[in-house]
Specification:
The protein is an alpha/beta fold. The chain is built from 11 helices and 9 strands. Strand 7, helix 6 and strand 8 form a beta-alpha-beta unit. Helix 1 packs parallel to helix 2, helix 2 crosses helix 9 and helix 6 packs across helix 11.
Length: 355
């Protein structure tokens, strides 16, 4: 896979039409975006004579310190539903901007940034990894605690022919991973309060909403704020479908990109808060309802039946809307007294880490 230098000129989408249906949908939405957002061609990736773009979208004020919500997807090429969910929300948001004053006001005082197709080559090749055979979510320089050396699932350096390959030891991160990290640092790290969601599929029969860490079963620094945010979400949507938990509750891995970015952020000076989440849509329920999907490389990770696809595309809009609202209203969950923070931390430890 060859890296082509960044392009600063206007995006010429005709160069990429027909490569992926998800890219074609993105280009359609960019036409609707108009003056509401800024489109950035972050990199081009060349593979097998084809050129694939990595496109970021930034909406809202130029001031990067304002509250920011980030949506990311398409890290794993097989999990195409993640990009489709992000694009479905972007479509709804853009349509609301055309007529809804409340949405327009939200965008006047906050930012919304997206990188909806992070691994287009993997999507084109219908495989989890990128064009070099590297699993991007095992690619950051993060070493997990107490992970058995023979645990392939948690990341390994044996061969790119095996899934969950981290890449060569001491090699730089893959281009796509570097682009993601740079985009997050540029667009979210300066915000006083930022939340990101990375959309995946494939684990379990329930939609899970994970927060750091993936590298260790020890609690991360902002467990109090996450527990306060969970309490508000539970009260606002008492019938929601999500299991909110640390990712390490299910498994631990090397090289998690969001662990890396969170740790990079807490090194910065200032009283800023960055909370990265992962939405892991449970694809087993799609297989359970249509077992024949298991014999398709895409069927294991994506809904096949049209009505299930439609249900999935509308299923998470309220979650993203809640999180975008939450970054603008930190008083009840992110701005905590010392006593409240201690009480919330104890409750969070009892709830999530009692074992």
């Amino acid at each position: 896979m060859k890296l082509v230098k960044p392009i600063s000129s206007d995006l010429d989408v005709t160069r990429y039409l027909g490569l992926l249906p998800e890219l074609d949908e993105l280009f359609e939405l960019l036409e609707l975006l108009g003056a509401w957002g800024r489109v950035k061609l972050l990199r081009e990736i060349e593979h097998s004579g084809k050129v694939f773009p990595l496109i970021g979208i930034v909406m809202g004020p130029e001031d990067k310190s304002v509250p920011t919500f980030g949506l990311f997807s398409g890290v794993h090429g097989l999990e195409r539903i993640g990009s489709r969910v992000s694009l479905a929300y972007l479509r709804t948001f853009i349509q609301l901007l055309q007529w809804d004053k409340n949405t327009q006001d939200i965008l006047n005082r906050s930012r919304f940034v997206l990188l909806p197709i992070i691994n287009p080559v993997g999507m084109f090749l219908k495989r989890r990894s990128n064009g070099s055979g590297v699993d991007l979510m095992r690619n950051a320089p993060v070493i997990a605690d107490k992970l058995h050396p023979l645990s392939l699932y948690g990341g390994h350096r044996i061969s790119s022919r095996l899934p969950w390959y981290q890449g060569s030891l001491n090699a730089p991160m893959e281009t796509e991973a570097q682009v993601l990290c740079q985009f997050v640092k540029e667009e979210l790290f300066s915000s006083q309060l930022a939340i990101s969601v990375d959309v995946h599929s494939g684990y379990g029969a329930r939609d899970r909403f994970w927060f750091p860490y993936a590298k260790t079963r020890n609690p991360f620094k902002h467990i109090s704020e996450v527990f306060a945010l969970k309490n508000i979400f539970d009260k606002t949507y008492p019938n929601h479908i999500y299991r909110i938990e640390p990712q390490s509750k299910q498994y631990i891995t090397h090289g998690d990109l969001w662990d890396f970015l969170y740790d990079e952020h807490i090194k910065l000076e200032g009283n800023r808060l960055f909370l990265p989440f992962c939405l892991e849509m449970g694809s087993w329920i799609w297989i359970k309802k249509n077992f024949r999907q298991v014999f398709s490389v895409l069927g294991v990770f994506n809904p096949v039946a049209h009505h299930r696809l439609q249900r999935t595309l509308r299923r998470h809009i309220h979650l993203f809307d809640f999180l975008h609202r939450a970054v603008q209203s930190p008083q009840s969950w992110a701005i905590l007294s010392t006593q409240d923070k201690m009480l919330l931390k104890k409750s969070a430890l009892d709830f999530w880490y009692d074992d």
